[in-house]
């Protein structure tokens, strides 16, 4: 193994334009071995994570089936297991939030929705669903400006439901819809003036 001084001399010969002290030959064989071991660890972690994600997806499907069969408390337990298996996967939090909403446990649902949004970084399918659900909860609490913001974010992610909510929450659109409703109601009754 070459000394540091030897590496600097070799660097000057092979890289004359590179500043002194910035060696092309900085890595020792031990550094190479350490880098290779690190890469192997990352590969193993990726394999474990992908197995965890597969397991979490299976659990989520099981949880959805339980919720569809009216077993909402059981569904929450299953979604909680999915979250334990893959805690950085936003979908599990989203699904559990939906189950909490069915049981009217809004504060628990809100925590899960916030987690889903944070984990998804506000992007993708999970974020779109979480913004919609959180918008509904905020609207239920009478926090319309915050709800509208969430619906706008979900609409930007492609949610037709959220787009409809944004239109409905627009005071001018609401007034226009009310006037149209009145006109059509009068037409149906035959009250044409």
What does the model show?
TPR repeats lie at residues 56-89. InterPro entries: TPR-like_helical_dom_sf (IPR011990), TPR_rpt (IPR019734), TTC36 (IPR038906). Helix 2 packs antiparallel against helix 3 (72-85), helix 2 (29-68) runs parallel beside helix 4 (90-102) and helix 7 packs antiparallel against helix 8 (160-169). The longest helix has 40 residues, at 29-68. 79% of the residues lie in helices and 0% in strands. The chain has a single domain (44-189), classed as Tetratricopeptide repeat domain (Serine Threonine Protein Phosphatase 5, Tetratricopeptide repeat, Alpha Horseshoe). The protein is built from nine helices and no strands. By secondary structure, it is mostly helical.
What would CATH call the architecture?
Answer: Alpha Horseshoe
Nearest-angstrom radius of gyration? 28 Å
Determine the CATH topology: Serine Threonine Protein Phosphatase 5, Tetratricopeptide repeat
Q: How many separate domains make up the residues?
A: 1
Supply the helix-strand structural class. mainly alpha
Instruction: Give the termini distance in whole angstroms.
Output: 100 Å
Overall spatial form = elongated
Largest sheet: none
- By CATH reckoning, the class would read Mainly Alpha
Tally of separate helices: 9
The CATH superfamily is known as Tetratricopeptide repeat domain
Helix content range: over 70%
Low-confidence stretches: 21-29
Topology as a string of helices (H) and strands (E): HHHHHHHHH
Number of DSSP strands? 0
What proportion of the residues form beta strands (DSSP E)? under 5%
